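Can you please make up a whole protein chain along with its backbone structure tokens because I've never seen that pairing?
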Amino acid sequence: MIKVGIIGAGSYGESHAQAMREVSDVKLVAASRTNAEALSGFVGKYGGSAYTDYHDLLADPQVDAVVIATPHHLHTEIVLAAARAGKHILLEKPMAPTLAECDQIINACAEHGVTLMVGHVNHFVLAYERAKQILESGELGEVVMGISTMSKFWYEPNRRWWHLQADTGGGMLLTAGIHCLDRMTWLMNSPVTSVSAQLMTRFHDQQADDAGMLFLRYASGAAGTIVSTGYAQGAPKHLTELTCTKGMMNIDYVSGISIGRDERWQIVAETSDDNWMHNALVREWRAFLNSVEHGAPSAVPGDYARHIIAVILAAQQSSAAGREIALSEAAG
């Protein structure tokens, strides 16, 4: 049994609380949020002790582990405090806004011997789990190229001021488009070596980007394109399309996987999921529990999550400079 405290008991913190209810040997015992009234409502619904200061939650001896679901720019200071307190950490993506902060997080968790897992939830979506298995089986040969798209309405109800500013780790790419970068890079099973990108702010009055396109070169020789759009008017599209040496694959959160071979598309059975986000969070918590309780390697380790941030920072530099940026030369 691990007893968990939520730091950042807002909308996504609530999603975690709902998922934890379905995982035996995981119990929510505490929650933290600066808004006392909202916090009271949260613990009234999900239980646990209420703390308006996360330091008090970290001092609670009942808490074995924390999930950190706060604004992006606050991640690092909270992780460092949690590691010092000996709490295992499930850290929401993005890991941190800079590579220096990512390194601080990785080093602190290693120094204090706590588990670190970064919440790249797409790794636990049913369709993506199955896609990974198909690719690893060799059935489709090697991945040659891919396109991963996340187009969504940007001003959804949980949009906050810090999502709109670059200096607080905001923008469509770092907030949501990171999912399509992550899922394709994970499926490619190869690091990105260079990025050419154009990031834009075309739909909303904000400082940070709300649209962008990235061209990626992978160490394996594969190529990828990322489409990140936070539209004002449109319709959602969440799709990954892979071209492999022995066939093609389309992956959608809800409808699942289709394989293209012999001039036709065939649906892969039992890969669709109408409640994909909740079910993925349940799987994420089971994976985290397995690491904390049984010593399994972190399903999403810090080094991997750091690489995703490095790609985004290189994309930002590429867009500003108007040229391709090698990850080896990117500043972070």
